[in-house]
Design brief:
By secondary structure, the chain is mostly helical. Helix content is about 50%, strand content about 0%. The longest helix has about 35 residues. The chain is elongated.
């Protein structure tokens, strides 16, 4: 095998490795997004933040007194599930 053929084979091998890496990366992101969308800690029918978002199984929410900031945050009303929300820069998500 001459020097030129070795370079072509090395280039082809590099392309195959890069393509396989991209496919694996895209596949892992797809699996992550599917798992995230099936999150069981989110209840779309919840009307407040506390009833919409439950803590993970290993954790629990501490009861807050009515005159605390934690109680204020937990009882904030939430938008309807699926409503458009704005990002920090004002653009709709």
């Amino acid at each position: 095998m001459n020097h030129k053929t070795k370079k072509i084979n090395l280039f082809a091998l590099s392309i195959i490795v890069i393509t396989a890496s991209i496919i694996m990366l895209v596949s892992s992101f797809t699996k992550y997004n599917q798992a995230e969308s099936q999150n069981t800690n989110i209840y779309p029918e919840g009307k407040t933040l506390a009833s919409r978002f439950n803590p993970p199984a290993e954790f629990h929410r501490i009861e807050a007194s009515e005159n605390s900031f934690a109680y204020y945050l937990q009882t904030l009303p939430s938008k309807k599930s699926g409503s458009k929300v704005r990002l920090y820069n004002g653009i709709f998500k």
